[in-house]
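Known limitations

Structure tokens in this collection are predictions and should be treated as such. Users comparing against experimental data should check residue numbering before alignment. To illustrate the layout, the record for Thiol-disulfide isomerase or thioredoxin is reproduced below. The input appears on top and the generated tokens appear beneath it.
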Amino acid sequence: MRYVILMLGLLLLVPHAPTLAAERDHPEARPYDKKAEASLAVNAALKQAGQTGKRVILVMGANWCHDSRGLAGWFEKPRFANMLRDRYEVVYVDVGKRNRNIDIAQRFGIEKIVGTPTVLVLSPEGELLNPDSAPTWRNAASRDADDIYAHFESFEVERADKNEEAGGKQESR
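Generated tokens:
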């Protein structure tokens, strides 16, 4: 009888096993708030970045989008969160069905949201540092975690003391 109960218990877990593995491999979050004052959040992040020398990651996506949720999920993992906290101010902007807050993308030189997420990396002064890669994140959920990490780790922080050491010159990456 114990054997039968044990087997029934195990069978109940089988349909959930692929789901659990998928969640572990591709975490998801839902940080996109359509009611948020996106322009205010972006301005606040740029102001904070100006004070700290960090960059700004502006993730333009939506909760309906698997890739937008997937990238946000990776950003919540401790490995990513630690690196991002030291280097970036991160802002999530809801773009609806690519018809909301488009003026924010345009402010930084992205005329049209062709896919979600569109991920802008900005200097503390608001300069777009990744015009070529910004619109390429619409496959974020299927990208390798190490590749995503390496991409965002490659942008240097602009610390005031670093500027002085380098004679005031900075590379954008």
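For this record: The longest strand covers residues 55-61. Strands lie at 55-61, 88-94, 118-122. Please report discrepancies through the issue tracker.
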